[in-house]
Specification:
Blueprint: H1 2-24, H2 28-61, E1 68-69, H3 70-88, H4 96-112, E2 117-118, H5 132-144, H6 151-157, H7 159-167, H8 184-196, H9 198-223, H10 226-237, H11 240-246, H12 252-269, H13 273-289, H14 309-334, H15 346-352, H16 360-369, H17 381-392, H18 401-416, H19 425-441, H20 446-471, H21 477-480, H22 486-493, H23 497-506, E3 512-516, E4 528-529, H24 549-558, E5 561-566, E6 571-573, E7 587-589, H25 591-604, E8 605-611, E9 614-619
Parallel strand pairs: 1-2, 3-4, 3-5, 6-7
Antiparallel strand pairs: 5-9, 8-9
Helix pairs in contact: 1-2, 2-3, 2-4, 2-9, 3-8, 3-14, 5-9, 5-11, 5-20, 7-8, 8-9, 9-10, 9-12, 9-19, 10-19, 11-20, 12-13, 13-14, 17-19, 18-19, 24-25
């Protein structure tokens, strides 16, 4: 009854605040925030319940007799939804009516099958260290309530599904290498965009983080002790790179969620065929999110010695089905399922050697505290505990063999290539689980325990400082808590926003836009031809040997392009091979491409809008060009 009373009190206070705010004008921002949070909670609840329902149906088909955790059903429902919608998107991209129908159907299934589900619960028995959980968790919550502003979201994770929705179907985007990556998470984000916009997509990624932490607690508890699970969750939650991206619509926490769920089901896979297939589904989902999840295939063969050929074939079929919408498309269109990797192109080399031009030790040290790249800091706590887990963890334990194998594989990869640190996020998850077990196995005197707690708190303070150093640059509080409108916030921080708004208001919906010197196209409500810093000039797709500016203009016009957005401040000529990343918003093109684009602007365009150096130009039709 106490819980019901508290909920009733909270509801009453909320209603009173809303009425007073509306009637008397007290704290006007509070009313806007209340409406926003209520709507987001309703949308996220429907979204999650829909996924859980589809997952529960699949669990019933797999003949699971015991109730399954909410997180397991959510993950399985996400896999089913992304796979089905991913395949369907090549014909018809999900519209709001289809998204609502899908989620409502799943929600009804969840209600009908609720007896087969159980809540994810955990005990965080860490004494005063429990206070760090709400501190670190509050940061991605605030960032998720801000309109999408992170670079990768605006270029790729939200921009690509947004482009598909504008076109009405998924289509090939040869000018954007990121569009060839597996789009499992982006398909889920696309449905969230249809239902509730960019904030809902960010909250979906945040929910993936929370579910991962809950599964991590269960894994640590099962392998070692309840306190080990709590320690593992704290270590993971306090890792700067992972906290920073949790409130943005990126996809790395989906990889971690699927890895954690795969590890959990893997523990039962030896004796249960349904759990083995479930492991295969989660492994396939990891591959359908990121190429770097490839080592997770080890879970299908280790530590099960010589799995039956029929079981292995069934698992392979499950993995193939889950990755089919994206690996299959790349195989058909490019002859390479891992495109743009292994393609020999500049994008492939840049992704593998993200910071390859830097000395080895400088690159390694940057993983600890380099602040000019937001996704390059793993903090200090996990690394300080690494020697401890090597000494204390029972490496001969059969249950830990696969953990050590995954750890070893990613460490070897780290020595051979130099991508972003997020490529090693599975390593961070495994390291957090093993480190949590190492901590609870430590037997020391009271003095050394107290000294260790002081050191842990100091390391957590350092990690928190790194996170806040990045967060403060976005000034998220006013936008998150409705003290400023989204329009004002975006106009202040996103320099392309006002020209894009002009295009959204002044051009026909069917007009396409060539975007040069910019890649953050999420807020452009028109189908766009826009590359990233990894790609050639956006006009490269339309050029061929012997094609002059007249030919180029005709090809652009035939492709439906009527407008050009150009930002010369982020555009330049590449005079020497790029050895390392300078900025993801510096678009360096070849001298030949620069000349061809300049001739196009001079002979076939007319300026219609300018703000500062940024220009919007109309592409003249073939009959009007040059007249």
């Amino acid at each position: 009854m106490r819980r019901q009373g508290l909920l009733l009190l909270l509801l009453t206070a909320t209603v009173v605040l809303a009425v007073q705010t509306r009637a008397f004008g007290f704290f006007p921002h509070a009313y806007a925030l209340l409406v926003r949070l209520s709507l987001l909670a309703l949308q996220l609840g429907l979204y999650s319940l829909g996924l859980v329902g589809w997952g529960a149906l699949l669990l019933r088909l797999l003949r699971f007799r015991e109730p399954s955790y909410f997180s397991v059903a959510w993950g399985l429902g996400a896999i089913w939804t992304a796979t089905v919608m991913g395949l369907a998107s090549y014909v018809y991209y999900p519209r709001p009516w289809l998204t609502l129908t899908w989620l409502i159907t799943g929600s009804l299934a969840a209600l009908a099958l609720r007896r087969g589900l159980k809540r994810d619960t955990c005990e965080l028995d860490l004494g005063h260290l429990r206070g760090w959980f709400p501190i670190f968790l509050s940061i991605p919550v605030v960032m998720a309530l801000v309109p999408p502003i992170s670079l990768d979201s605006l270029v790729y994770h939200l921009a690509v599904p947004r482009q598909f929705a504008l076109a009405g179907h998924a289509f090939e985007m040869p000018w954007n290498a990121h569009s060839y990556f597996p789009l499992h998470a982006e398909t889920l984000f696309g449905m969230a965009l249809q239902l509730g916009g960019g904030r809902l997509a960010q909250l979906v990624h945040l929910l993936a983080m929370i579910l991962t932490l809950l599964v991590t607690v269960r894994l640590g508890t099962r392998l070692f002790a309840p306190r080990a699970g709590a320690w593992s969750a704290l270590l993971l939650l306090s890792t700067p790179v992972l906290v920073l991206i949790a409130g943005w619509a990126w996809n790395d926490w989906f990889v971690l969620l699927y890895l954690a769920l795969a590890l959990e089901s893997h523990a039962e896979a030896k004796h249960s065929a349904p759990h083995y297939l479930l492991t295969a589904a989660f492994v396939g989902a990891g591959l359908a999110v990121k190429y770097y999840a490839l080592p997770l295939l080890l879970l299908l063969v280790v530590p099960v010695p010589r799995p039956a050929l029929r079981r292995l074939a069934a698992a392979a079929a499950v993995v193939a089905a889950v990755v089919l919408p994206w690996y299959g498309k790349n195989l058909l269109t490019k002859g390479n399922p891992f495109y743009p990797l292994l393609s020999g192109q500049g994008a492939s080399e840049s992704l593998v050697s993200y910071r390859g031009g830097e000395p080895f030790w400088e690159r390694i040290s940057a993983y600890v505290g380099r602040l000019d790249l937001i996704d390059e800091s793993v903090g200090v706590l996990l690394l300080c505990l690494f020697p401890l887990l090597l000494v204390l963890t029972k490496k001969g334990d059969q249950k830990l063999r696969v953990y050590w194998l995954i750890l070893l594989v990613y460490l070897v990869v780290a020595l051979l290539v130099s991508p972003t640190v997020r490529v090693f996020s599975p390593l961070l998850l495994v390291l957090a689980i093993l480190a949590g077990g190492a901590i609870v196995q430590l037997r020391t005197r009271r003095f050394w325990r107290a000294l260790g707690l002081v050191a842990v708190n100091a390391a957590l303070v350092v990690n928190l400082a790194q996170i806040l150093w990045v967060v403060h640059r976005y000034e998220p509080l006013e936008a998150a808590f409705a003290f400023t409108s989204d329009q004002e916030y975006l106009e202040t921080g996103q320099r392309y926003f006002r020209p894009f708004q002009w295009l959204n208001q002044q051009t026909a919906p069917e007009d396409r836009v060539l975007v040069v010197g910019e890649s953050r196209i999420f807020y452009l409500d028109r189908v766009a031809v826009a590359g990233t810093y990894l790609d050639p000039h956006p006009i490269a797709t339309f050029r061929s040997p012997g094609c002059d500016h007249v030919c180029l203009a005709e090809r652009l016009w035939t492709a439906g392009i009527r407008w050009i957005y150009f930002d010369p401040t982020q555009y330049g000529v590449l005079t020497a091979p790029r050895e390392s990343l300078s900025s993801e918003l510096v678009f360096l093109v070849s001298d030949e491409e620069a000349r061809a684009f300049a001739e196009l602007l001079e002979n076939h365009t007319e300026e219609r809008y300018r703000i500062g150096e940024r220009r919007v130009l109309a592409l003249l039709g073939p009959s009007a060009a040059g007249s």
